Every structure is written in C-alpha cells, then in structure tokens.
Amino acid sequence: MLNILLLNMQEGAELLTDEESVEKTLSIIELISSGGVAGQVIIAILFLLLIVASYIYFERLFAIKAASKIDANFMNQIKDHVSNGKIDSAQMLCAQVNSPVSRLIGKGISRIGKPLADINTAIENAGRLEIYGLEKNVSVLATISGAAPMIGFLGTVVGMILAIFELANAGGTIEMDVLASGLYTAMTTTVAGLIVGIIGYIAYNHLVVRTDKVVYQMEANSLEFLDHLNEPT
C-alpha cells in the first residue's frame, strides 16, 4: 500500500514537472502575440525599420564596392596621354571607366589649359558631388539606429502603463495572468528595439568606413593628377 502511494506521488510529481516545462516553453511568435495590440504595433514598426535598414545597407555596400574598383594602371595611362598631349584620349578613357576617381580626373582634364587653382577647384566641387552620392541614404541608417531603441522603450512605457492599469482594476488581488500582457509588451518591444538599433548602428559605421576608403582613394588620385600637371615640362 505504501509502495503504491509513493508510486502515485512520484507519477504526480513527474506530471507536474512536465506541465511546468511545457508552460515555460514559449516561441517568439507566441511571445509577440502575448504582448497585446500595442506591443504588436510597435514590433511591426521595428520590423519595417529593420527591413529598410537592411535594404539601405546592402544597396549602399554594393554601390560603394563598385565605386572602389579601379584599374591600377588607370593613372599611368592618364599621365601618358596628358604628357603626350592626347587630351581627347584621356577624356575618352575617363568616360569608359565608371568610377568616382575617373569622373574627378575627367573633370580636371576638361579644365586643362586654365590655372592650376581653377582645376583644383573643379575637382573639389566634383568630389563633393561624388561623396554626396556615396553617402546617399546612409543618414537614414543613423536615424534608425537611434530611433529604434527609443521606439522599443516607448513600448516598455506603454506596457508598464497597461500593467499598472490592470493592477489598479484588479480589486486588490494580484494575478500574474492580469499583468502578463503588459509585461510581455514591455519586455518584447525593448529587446526588439535594441536589436534593430544595434544592427543599424553596426551597418552605419561599416558603411562610413567603406565610404572613407573611397574618399581617400579619390583624394590620392586627384593629388597625383595635380602633381603631374604641376611638373615642369
């Protein structure tokens, strides 16, 4: 009789343990759906921001990567054409190469015959336009990296307000089921906002570094071209 009682208690404990383990298992979809309408709206906004950030990052990354590609022999060919007075051939070579460096050099070649200061000014103005093109929409990434955590914290505040409101209307009895929706909203939106913000921040800084490399390449080739024009003949 005692053995049967102990066996039943053991089976009951195992069933209770199994039920607790099942209750503690929660998928991401269930976690989001448990956050209520306010949490779902904020999660949807953050998801859209993540899609926008991902699109801008990869679009700019491929554009910057393409802009950084240039033939190592390009400047040598340009200097040979300019030294031999083949200005048209130099301009044609610049037109064939689709890169910021070739467009800057092409702008400088079109000003050959004018004072060196004018050529330098023309190259600088063209360089500003090229940098503006390289940095297109990159500022949006910076905005997303800063706005996403704040949107997540907004969800936290909304969730806590809902939890306090439910607690105030509970009539003095505290039940976790009553507080669950508000707490889920508070926690899930905070985590989602931080994730989107971190991704946006990393993507923005990576693009800035890649853009700076292209800018340095443009400056180096422009100075090489101006030094060649300034060489005594």
UniProtKB/TrEMBL annotation:
Domain MotA/TolQ/ExbB proton channel, residue spans: 98-219
Protein location: Cell membrane; Membrane
Transmembrane annotation, as ranges: 37-58, 138-164, 184-204
InterPro entries: ExbB/TolQ_transport, MotA_ExbB_proton_chnl
Keyword Oxidoreductase attributed: no
Mode of membrane association: Multi-pass membrane protein
Alphabetical keyword list: Cell membrane, Membrane, Protein transport, Transmembrane, Transmembrane helix, Transport
Superkingdom of origin: Bacteria
Entry annotated with the keyword Mitochondrion: no
Gene Ontology biological process terms, A to Z: protein import
GO cellular component, one term: plasma membrane
Family per similarity comment: Belongs to the exbB/tolQ family.
Protein name: MotA/TolQ/ExbB proton channel family protein
